[in-house]
Design brief:
By secondary structure, the chain is mainly β. It has no helices and eight strands.
Length: 99
């Protein structure tokens, strides 16, 4: 957009559940809460306020002993406690290296 937007920081706590239905595959699920510092606008959308709820759901495929590929769907919302509740939906692809 060519304009400078104020920074936004997020701090969240999200316990995660890992299920392994087959060797080499894991299902991931998480539910948590968090707080935003700074501007609560994101990509032109008013996220409402500082408090938010977050959830994620995904799958991980183990490639080698230390390397895995992962897909996650992440959702953030304030659950309607503020006047604005634009929410965020994000897709994430990752390579995971475990020591």
């Amino acid at each position: 957009s060519g304009r400078d937007e104020p920074p936004t920081a997020r701090l969240s706590l999200m316990p995660q559940l890992l299920l392994a239905p087959r060797p080499g595959w894991q299902l991931l699920a998480g539910l948590g809460t968090g707080l935003m510092a700074g501007d609560t606008n994101f990509a032109g959308n008013n996220l409402g306020g500082r408090f938010f709820l977050a959830s994620k759901l995904g799958i991980r495929m183990q490639l080698t002993r230390h390397l895995a590929a992962e897909y996650l769907f992440y959702h953030q919302s304030n659950a309607g406690i503020y006047d604005h509740n634009a929410g965020l939906n994000m897709h994430q692809l990752a390579l995971v290296f475990r020591f």
